[in-house]
Design goal:
Strand order of the largest sheet: 1-2-3
Oligomer: single chain
Number of strands: 3
Largest sheet: 3 strands, mixed
Structural class: alpha+beta
Shape: globular
Order of helices and strands: EEHHEH
Helix content: 25-40%
Number of helices: 3
Radius of gyration: 13 Å
Length: 84
């Protein structure tokens, strides 16, 4: 999508479940929710394929962590309240 070869990681935590660290594949939630290709997208088709895979992972219960979403970052637990 955004750059050739973007990767993400699916992390499973004992207490808090699975998290998809989407990095630049999903930079902000609004783009993902509205099927928007950001202006700096390298190729739209691979980006939308990544969105489709992320939707499957999310439907299985994972939380998606977007690469650059400040609104989401403000809602995440950090520091002493971190995830386990």
């Amino acid at each position: 999508g955004h750059t050739p070869g973007s990767t993400g990681a699916l992390i499973g935590l004992d207490r808090d479940g699975e998290f998809l660290l989407a990095t630049d594949a999903i930079s902000v939630r609004e783009s993902f929710d509205r099927d928007i290709a950001p202006k700096n997208t390298w190729q739209a088709d691979p980006l939308f394929a990544s969105y489709a895979e992320a939707r499957k992972i999310e439907a299985g219960g994972a939380t998606i962590i977007c690469g650059h979403d400040m609104e989401q970052w403000r809602r995440l637990r950090i520091g002493n309240d971190a995830y386990e």
